[in-house]
Amino acid sequence: MLRTHTCGELRIDNVGEEVILTGWVQRLRDKGGMLWIDLRDRYGITQLSFEEGLTPEALLNQARELGREFVIRVVGKVIERESKNDKIPTGAIELKVTKLEVLNAAKLPPFMIEDETDGGDDLRMKYRYLDLRRNPVRRNLELRHRVMRETRNYLDGLYFIEVETPVLIKSTPEGARDFVVPSRMNPGEFYALPQSPQTFKQLLMVSGFDKYYQIVKCFRDEDLRADRQPEFTQIDCELSFVTQEDILNTFEGLIHHLFQKVKGVNLPKMPRMTYADAMRLYGSDKPDTRFGMQFVELNSLVKNKGFKVFDDAELIVGINATGAASYTRKQLDELTDFVKRPQIGATGLVYARVNEDGSVKSSVDKFYAPEDLAEWAAAFNAKPGDLLLVLAGGKDKTRKALNELRLEMGTRLGLRDKDTFSALWVVDFPLLEWDEEMGRFHAMHHPFTSPKPEDLELIDDRPSDIRANAYDMVINGVEVGGGSIRIHDRRLQEQMFRLLGFSNDEAKAQFGFLMEAFEYGAPPHGGIAFGFDRLCSIFGGSDSIRDYIAFPKNNSGRDVMIDAPSPISDAQLDELHIKMRNITAPEKK
Ligand code: ASP
């Protein structure tokens, strides 16, 4: 190698050794008589020193001509530093340089390659390769690497086998839009990029692979948010001859292992919560259980007292924001505005403060006597100093709105600490979801999920009440993984497709291969997939999965560094048998 050591390696024990280092010039300090350079590589920083009088003139001049981010190679002797820097592991020594070679000059970088940089988001994305030189960004990728390695360690230990599945496939209906790729050799036909390897991993079970996993890229053409990227990575798993219980235990084990190895955190056993309870108590199928503030339903307490809003409501439900009675009028108005925003859609907010003397003062005192309000407080188990926040309206909408308000209050009251971890399983999801717009059912998880056998009798009369053998793992309010026990019987799978509005021909055209495979000895099987980038962001304590992806896309789905997507030549289009309509390229964002 061009070097004998890395820039993070030398210690006081190395004093006296002659060594060779390579790296980037992070900083240069010229004090006239002395000149220091911080030399950086992936492993750390080592200080180089040059001294007038002792360092040959030519070498000193050579050093003075270096600029930030020049790539250099130096030969020198390790000496003890006079003023030590206890903030870095190499801070006790420096290198007295005897020879310097510039391996490559560098233009001045467009932003500071420091932990705190002056570069804005767009600039750092355009020069992502420079951003990746910065410690915090590099550390995120190191974390990702450790999560990946430990995932493989754990699953290998359980005899899982990693099998790669194809990337050019036919669309699988996971609910999102497919990215498609035109086929040159098959005019007018397209591949789709996998939204997940779902059908392939099921076929691998038919093949007898028994325990499969894959850390795999998946593609979904959806609108982007902080926790979504058009291409993302899953830990995708499937097992044969297992019950739901086996799967929950195996993968709770995986997450325990990762927390232990990557974070040094021992997570407690994960509680299980039914979907119905999650909706009733938190208004969400991914409740943030780092804090309580569970929903309390008030229908039986508050109706028929002359308050029309409550009388007309399907559901009156609230939360106890403990200790928030001191909220000012202005703060309460802010909360009212918050719930009335169109995205949340509540019509108003009722509040009640529990005073120090135990009396309750509400925004609807006109309708409710002090004894009534005392009953409210009791229902919430509220103490002096607490603030009750109540919403009313249609059941689903009101629960959804109160979920948002609960999360907002959790944030405001500092209850959502990123170093606290609360994980749980949400189980017993409904099999189907009614799509108002399309006027038909969708599979809530995907069409291969099996119904609970005991609910099958509801199939004709109350299909929306059928529960599935489907489960999600939720950590701190983020759905990190989800899966199900699958259907492995052709007839049941056909019945499911019918329920989802597929004609026999459509089902056959799309999934004939899977249903045929079910006729050749398909074992009972089930699986799960974890969002790998999301897991990393939870371990790293960031809300954005982008921070854990080496080369992510921006909010418009663009890679601004390589400038993709981009137009292709007419010749390429011709070859692909594609005629472009008059499209004006959108302005680049
Ligand atoms: N394929 C599913 C998904 O991507 C996961 C599973 O059911 O295993 O959500």
Automatic annotation (TrEMBL):
Residue ranges constituting the Aminoacyl-transfer RNA synthetases class-II family profile domain according to the UniProt record: 146-552
Keywords in alphabetical order: Aminoacyl-tRNA synthetase, ATP-binding, Cytoplasm, Ligase, Nucleotide-binding, Protein biosynthesis
Cross-referenced InterPro entries: Aa-tRNA-synt_II (IPR004364), aa-tRNA-synth_II (IPR006195), aa-tRNA-synth_II/BPL/LPL (IPR045864), Asp-tRNA-ligase_1 (IPR004524), Asp-tRNA-ligase_1_N (IPR047089), Asp/Asn-tRNA-synth_IIb (IPR002312), AspRS_core (IPR047090), GAD-like_sf (IPR004115)
E.C. code: 6.1.1.12
Binding site for ATP: R220, D221, E222, Q229, E479, G531, F532, D533, R534
Main subcellular location of this protein, as a coarse class: cytoplasm
Region (Aspartate): 198-201
Catalytic activity as recorded in UniProt: tRNA(Asp) + L-aspartate + ATP = L-aspartyl-tRNA(Asp) + AMP + diphosphate
Enzyme class label: ligase
Binding-site residues, L-aspartate: E174, R220, H445, R486
SUPFAM superfamilies: Class II aaRS and biotin synthetases, GAD domain-like, Nucleic acid-binding proteins
GO cellular component, one term: cytoplasm
GO biological process: aspartyl-tRNA aminoacylation
Quaternary structure and partners: Homodimer.
Chain's role: Catalyzes the attachment of L-aspartate to tRNA(Asp) in a two-step reaction: L-aspartate is first activated by ATP to form Asp-AMP and then transferred to the acceptor end of tRNA(Asp).
Protein name, per record: Aspartate--tRNA ligase
Gene of this entry: aspS
